Each structure stands twice: as C-alpha cells, then as structure tokens.
Amino acid sequence: MEQLLTKVRACTLCKGLPLGPRPLVQASATSRLLIAGQAPGRATHIKGIPFDDASGRRLRAWLGLAPDVFYDPAKVAILPMGFCFPGSGAGGDLPPRAECAPQWRRPLLDAMPDVALTLVIGRYALAWHLPAARKRSLADLAQAVDLPQGVVVLPHPSPRNNRWLAQNPWFEARVLPKLRETIASLWVDLPQSDGRTIC
Ligand code: SF4
Fold first, then answer.
1. Quick check: 57 pLDDT over 50?
2. Which N-terminal stretch is annotated as signal sequence (predicted)?
3. Ligand 1 center to residue 79 CA distance, Å?
4. What burial letters (b/e) apply to 90-106, b meaning 16+ CB within 10 Å?
C-alpha cells in the first residue's frame, strides 16, 4: 500500500487541472471503513485535508466518529472518485477526472482487504460501486435493504442538501442510528493506531 500511495502522490496523469495535481487520498492496508466520495473542491485542495469543513463536520456527526478516528487511515479510508480538484464550471465543480478511477481505484481497493463498510456518496461513486443501482433515487437507495452487504448509500453531507434532509427526516431518525451502530463495531478487535496518512 505504501508504494502505491507514493505513486498516487506523484501522479500527474491529468492535464489541465486548474490548480495542478494534488491527490487527496487517505488509506491503509487495514482500513475498515471506506468513504467513497466525488472529488476535492477548491478549498479542500488548498487545505490538503478532505472533509475539513461543514460537510465533514456533519459527516463525522452522522457516523459518530471523532476527528482522530476519522483521519486515522488504519481505520478509515477516504477515496474520492477523482483525487485532485477538477476545476469549476458554470454549474459548480466539474466531475471527477475520468482518468483517475481507472488508473488508481482498483489497485487501491485491492490493497485494502479489510474494508467491511463502504459509504457511497454521490453519483460518480454510485456508478462505480453500485452500477446496477445508478438510476435509483437517493431516497430509495439510502433506505434500501437490497444493496450488497457492506455498502451504504448516503446523501452528500453538504449544507446544500439541507432541503433533502428536511424532506426525508427518516434518514437521520432511522438510518443514521443503525449506521452508527455498525460503524462502532468495525474496530473492536483492532489495536489503536496514531498513524495519519493524507497524501
Ligand atoms: S485526478 Fe487522479 S489521475 Fe488525475 S492527476 Fe490527480 S491523482 Fe492523477
């Protein structure tokens, strides 16, 4: 895994990235929780820390994870569909760079054999991790009981989704308590780690 992450950190495959390559990935060979998101935004690219914003605070509250656990690669992998900020367009940030997932996703996933729970956030992650479900609605998928074991679809925790959350109160009332229970059980047999690898 370390060799792979070294290669990811040095990746310059995509041309024309507005701020240049800065792959933001957190992973280790022992990660048990995988957060499969979209791509870093401009502010995240500049900070170099994923989910260090209002979305991240909400996501950690949803998952019941303190920052020291959330940012511990021995426990949590953060693997967006594109690792670098792809730029912005008229409608917001551009999609994750199409080069990234084919280049890096499979080898990184293969290097994390202990992942027991994958949180799928956004349509690009959905298309990769659950291609057969990509046409189903978020409300359907977020409460679905027919997904492959160990895969959960979440709305993006962005404040921009406040309206969806208000319209779907069952998500916070019923889905999240069960999710927190599942997550709390993921590391009961693992030693503590203070390693931190964000590249
Ligand atoms: S987005 Fe992915 S493939 Fe493109 S330069 Fe960054 S790490 Fe490499």
1. yes
2. none
3. 12
4. eeebeebbeebbebbbe
Contact in structure between 103 and 58 (CB atoms under 8 Å): no
Structure tokens at 94: 């551009």
Tell me, using a 6 A CB cutoff, whether residue 73 lines ligand 1.
no
> From CA 146, how far away is CA 74, in angstroms rounded?
29
Beta bridge partners of 34: 77, 118
**Smallest Cα–Cα separation from 24: which of 97, 114, 119, 126?**
97
Radius of gyration of the chain (CA): 16
Q: Is the CB of 96 under 6 A from ligand 1?
A: no
User: In sequence order, what are the beta bridge partners of 154?
Assistant: 121
The mean-pLDDT minimum among 23-32, 59-68, 148-157, 182-191 falls in 182-191
Strands 76-78 and 117-121: unpaired
Domain 2-10+21-184 sits in which CATH superfamily? Uracil-DNA glycosylase-like domain (3.40.470.10)
Kindly state the DSSP code that residue 120 receives in the 8-state scheme: E
